[in-house]
Amino acid sequence: MIHRVSAAEPRLLTLAVRRFGGGGTGAAAFTATPGTIAFVAADGDDVQGWCWGYLLPRPDGTSMLYLHNLEVAPQHRRRGVGRGLLSAFLQAGVRAGARTMFLITGEHNTAARRLYESMGAGLATQGPTVNYWFVLPATE
């Protein structure tokens, strides 16, 4: 079953972070932050998959979704869990007024690419892109 995680009930997100993210205690703070969206696929406390991202306002008055992570446990793959999570994320974005969604995945992640393309996604048309990451200094 797919569950939208809320600030009032971040327990499933905490379980998903432990399963896929390696620990951490930021689920409550994440869900309390405006613009965050997270879903967990679970059967009771058995977390099968999760996805999370953001609703981003744009200066032109529209908004768009950014899917930062979608992951399904290996034993639950190819059973519709990823499709269900992605569908729930997209629907939440539509209800919030988003007009587009973007994500980044590895070129060789064929399973993910097949899922995204089967649900109507197309490759970005701006040409070859390069991703950069900045590691920011810690504050004192």
Automatic annotation (TrEMBL):
<dbReference type="Pfam" id="PF00583">
    <property type="entry name" value="Acetyltransf_1"/>
</dbReference>
<dbReference type="InterPro" id="IPR000182">
    <property type="entry name" value="GNAT_dom"/>
</dbReference>
<protein>
    <submittedName>
        <fullName>Acetyltransferase (GNAT) family protein</fullName>
    </submittedName>
</protein>
<keyword id="KW-0808">Transferase</keyword>
<dbReference type="InterPro" id="IPR016181">
    <property type="entry name" value="Acyl_CoA_acyltransferase"/>
</dbReference>
<dbReference type="GO" id="GO:0016747">
    <property type="term" value="F:acyltransferase activity, transferring groups other than amino-acyl groups"/>
</dbReference>
<feature type="domain" description="N-acetyltransferase">
    <location>
        <begin position="1"/>
        <end position="140"/>
    </location>
</feature>
